[in-house]
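In the previous lecture we treated proteins in isolation. Real proteins rarely work alone, and many bind small molecules. This record shows how such a complex is specified: first the sequence, then the SMILES for flavin-adenine dinucleotide.
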Amino acid sequence: MKRLFILLFIFCYVIAFVFSISRSEPVRSSTSVMEDVSGLMPVKVHKLVKGQEEASIKQVIQEAAEQDLKVSIAGKRHSMGGHTYYRDGIVLDMTSYNKILAFNPEEKIIRVQSGATWDQIQQHVNPYGLAVKVMQSQNIFTIGGSMSVNAHGRDIRYGSLVDTIRSFRLLQENGDIIQVSRDENEELFELVIGGYGLFGVILDVELELTDDELYTMETSELNFDEYTEYFKNEVIGNEGVRMHLARISTASDHFLKDMYVTDYVLAPNQELKLRNELKTDRMTFLTKFLLGLSRNFSWGKNLLWDMQEKYFLKTNGSLVTRNNVMRSESKFLEYDHDSNTDVLQEYFVPIDHFTPYINELRTTLLEEDLNLINITIRYVQKDESAVLSYAKDDMFALVLLINQGISKEEQEETKAIVQKMIDVTLKYNGSYYLPYMPYPTKEQMKAAYPRTDEFFTKKKLYDPDERFYNYFYEEYK
Ligand SMILES: Cc1cc2nc3c(=O)[nH]c(=O)nc-3n(C[C@H](O)[C@H](O)[C@H](O)COP(=O)(O)OP(=O)(O)OC[C@H]3O[C@@H](n4cnc5c(N)ncnc54)[C@H](O)[C@@H]3O)c2cc1C
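The predicted 3D structure, ligand included, written as tokens:
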């Protein structure tokens, strides 16, 4: 009888799940109501204009100046918190401005329009045995959006995205187009990268590439208090390890204790050609299903953790190219529901503080009601070359996937917990990532980003009429 009941329950869940997939639509917008992937801040805008070529993009800025309208710039709108739009403003959607303009395989340089995605670059350079140096784990984002947050990913040797940008052209609020690099208009180089679209429109970008490589995946299990030593000795201390990703459990059986880590180690035989076909999403249905269980049930979180861990341990020793590590599955993250949504938070903590930090974070979270679905961990090297740099030290970056309610009260509840988590993070000399919901306080931003005042002062200097505008700016300026 009990078994029948469980089967009936799973059957109903699958039906409900399949129904939810069929109506899933990650970024919903009509022409006048805009929102981003979080779905938490729908707003009426004046209009959305697709940037097609340079002249028409310039015209949008001119028109906005004539009508005294705000302009927000949008890529794929995977930032969460109104970074890509503003009430009654113009949204300049850059996703159609996406050509590959030049490619020099010998020098390992590519020049692209800023609406191009990492996927487009990968498709272009993979046949030449080349790959991107630094990008997110997924390849769905635009280059302009990634630069404006100064993205980072699984690579552990090349720093943040800013370190791989040679130069770019910027359209400013007065209609001027200028070249920006470390030698030309250099002040803007460190303001625009990680600048959240507040200094002008990035038009095209010259990016450094590297060799595609073949890696052996090596996964092992750890307790959280072994991680820092493991990382120093076996990952950073081993030249052969090129990329790295870790997970820490959010399941009730071993909450913020059990971990497993995957290292991508240079394979002894670099027979790239046999294995460099670019992969596409394959396990969307299963992962989405498990995530659904994990969202709704505590036992679902335990099940997801156990199955993921088994899967990664099973893939031990398998070969994967650099390009394929950098095109992880993404569709399973698409989720649309009337009463709740998934959001991300990301906290950076110096690697030497990881153990006490996790102990305190666990104590804090055990007192709160937060639906924490999973946490992945990456490494980012100390890097202060952007004004809003998050890596004040060599940091572990913890990416938290949280399911939260969308009502005003539920948003306030999540906001309060996020502020507590950030207080813990700041206590350990950490910082947090800015592309997500504007839950942190202004004081927390200043503590995490010591050059915050300089950033906003320079914004007013370069854009006196505050033409480039979004909710991130409104909240923290
Ligand atoms: C599922 C998921 C996974 C993620 N994983 C990672 C990760 O591994 N590492 C990481 O670092 N981040 C990660 N992120 C965050 C992600 O990198 C940022 O949200 C990034 O901005 C997304 O790119 P986009 O094209 O969607 O940019 P958008 O969200 O469209 O824009 C982001 C910002 O860039 C500005 N902008 C966009 N285009 C231009 C332009 N041409 N000129 C000037 N400004 C512009 C916008 O105004 C906005 O302020 C993840 C986000 C999600 C949702």
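Summary for your notes: The CA atoms of residues 168 and 205 lie 4 Å apart. The chain has 14 helices and 19 strands.
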